[in-house]
Specification:
The protein is α/β, with parallel strands linked by helices and 362 residues long. It has helices spanning 43-48, 101-104, 151-170, 187-199, 211-219, 234-244, 262-269, 293-298, 310-322, 341-349; strands at residues 4-9, 18-23, 32-40, 64-71, 89-94, 133-136, 140-144, 179-183, 203-208, 224-227, 250-255, 270-278, 301-304, 332-337, 355-359.
Amino acid sequence: MAGTAKAAVFVGAGKPLEIQEFPIPPVEPGAALISMDMAAICGTDAHAIHLESTPHPVIFGHENIGIIAGLSSEVKEDVLGQPLKEGDRALFRAAPCGQCKGCAMGDRCRNSLSYGFLPSDEPPYLRGGFGQYLYLDPGPWILRVPDDMSSERALLSVVGNHTALHGMEKIGGLTLSDTVVVQGSGPIGIGAMLQARMAGAERVIMIGAPANRLELSTEMGADETIDITKMKEPEARVARIMELTNGQGADMVIECSGAPSAFQEGLEMVAQGGKYLVIGQWTDYGPRPINPSIITRKGIRVEGVISARPSHIIRSLQAMHTMVKYPVEKLITHQFALEDINKGFDTHESLEAMVAVIRPNQ
């Protein structure tokens, strides 16, 4: 396929993303070319654009769904053995190497490429979802999206849900009828809530803000919400959780906010013998004051998680297709053309959007 494609490029901290043009690479043996449908703006991207340490130039966009525009004759099936052809919608990533310690131990691959975080100043250039095309190197990991599934629902399976599923697995899951508290009412928090519901939670309490996000949380299954703009002190929020759980605390607390003070607050909400799953603390704010005695005295199991393994993407897509009955498409509240990507980042950072997506080819 000849011609050029546009992409939004990160060119340095504090600068707007720039729309640049790149040559569309030919599809080499074993490779694939994706015409981008939607790419979600992730909190990771929103943090990265402000950090001087973020490498550039880079085309961000790692939560993606696209249409297969070019497919090498060697690539005939997706990872589940389903036939693949040009025109199919797909989720995708780089395949695990199968050689490193992470792969050998069933953990994250240490060597696979991370589309959305690769340099855009060397061929094949188009390596992130915030562009009209994305090039998948030979041996790609491709998962075909079912024909009767909306693209919005499919995309949301890799917006928070797959990571939350990974975390639930790592921490040992829930027991039927458990009470779960979710700290953070953004996309990852909603994903954690949905996963907790499918895992058997009887009650889910969502803590967050602003009001529009809490309203969506209720529509997606939250039983109670706590608005941090109205209940501003951590002590008051902990007391409210104790009140709602008859003084026991939550069987599991899932931290999805990324707020520097959230960890200590969450520990205090966990019940005796409970679990604390930490997803949101990606940004390194340095040492924070916590009281580890709470972990010991309560016998709390604490687990951290980052991203997901391929199996979690598969399960998340399947669950979103057949098990999640909530109208999750409503979580995509804002859509932007590629040229308006900086407005998209603004709506994400202001919390106006729940999930803001870029539509590079519209």
